[in-house]
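> call design_seq(struct)
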């Protein structure tokens, strides 16, 4: 049986109209032609670190163990922010130290984080504006070649993390937050079935966002009535709100960060 090639994934806000993504792939293949590169997405909204972090959270575990995930949404490129490589759980992560791996730090045991600082492992010369090609892509290629990370930089213990809000109990209810709006306008919250239980749903739990309420938690979209705001648990395990064939976020004026409440009768 042939040995599986190492996998490197790419998540960026580069889009696909310019040369950025193929340049990264070329940099990887120039160092390690034995890898398989998988595009997660290159359509993260420009500079939206939170969206990139959420996207990575939802799919990093769908890949085989030891996959190296490269995430480059990097508005601080060229500044003093550090390039890093992270070992967490059964996966490796390469990208800027700007909070993009915050959900990973929250969900996984972090074995080590290395500040990439040894220029031998960079593409030369290093551009001030394209570390995706010149630092992160080469680093991922070397990680996939099983290069000792200690040769690539020094370990750190103070990575940048943004606040990843967690739901809280309020009386018999729950207070959570919107953490993402997907391309269909569905509203993703940080509430999971660990907080909103089947017993609470059977008891008539309602979900309020802004001035709007979902009075039913359904199992699939077709159950929803016309113009009805309803809730369901999405494929990533979070409670979501939708309106059949419409944009729930537009209807409710929801945006990332606003409060969501579970109200019990």
């Amino acid at each position: 049986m042939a040995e599986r090639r190492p996998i490197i994934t790419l998540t960026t806000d580069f889009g696909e109209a310019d040369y950025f993504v193929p340049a990264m792939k070329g940099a990887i293949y120039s160092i390690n032609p034995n890898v398989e590169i998988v595009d997660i997405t290159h359509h993260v909204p420009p500079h939206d670190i939170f969206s990139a972090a959420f996207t990575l959270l939802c799919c990093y575990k769908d890949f085989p163990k030891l996959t190296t995930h490269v995430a480059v949404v990097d508005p601080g490129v060229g500044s003093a922010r550090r390039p890093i490589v992270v070992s967490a759980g059964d996966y490796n992560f390469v990208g800027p130290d700007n909070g993009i791996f915050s959900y990973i730090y929250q969900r996984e045991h972090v074995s080590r984080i290395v500040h990439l600082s040894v220029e031998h492992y960079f593409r030369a010369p290093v551009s001030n504006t394209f570390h995706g090609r010149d630092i992160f892509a080469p680093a991922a290629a070397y990680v996939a070649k099983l290069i000792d990370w200690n040769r690539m930089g020094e370990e750190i213990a103070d990575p940048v993390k943004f606040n990843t809000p967690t739901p809280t109990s309020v009386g018999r209810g729950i207070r959570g937050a919107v953490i993402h709006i997907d391309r269909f306008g569905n509203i993703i919250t940080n509430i999971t079935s660990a907080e909103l239980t089947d017993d609470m749903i059977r008891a008539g739990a309602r979900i309020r966002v802004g001035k709007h309420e979902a009075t039913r938690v359904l199992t699939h979209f077709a159950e929803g009535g016309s113009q009805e705001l309803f809730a369901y648990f999405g494929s990533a395990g979070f409670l979501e709100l939708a309106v059949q064939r419409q944009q729930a976020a537009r209807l409710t004026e929801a945006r990332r960060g606003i409060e969501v409440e579970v109200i019990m009768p």
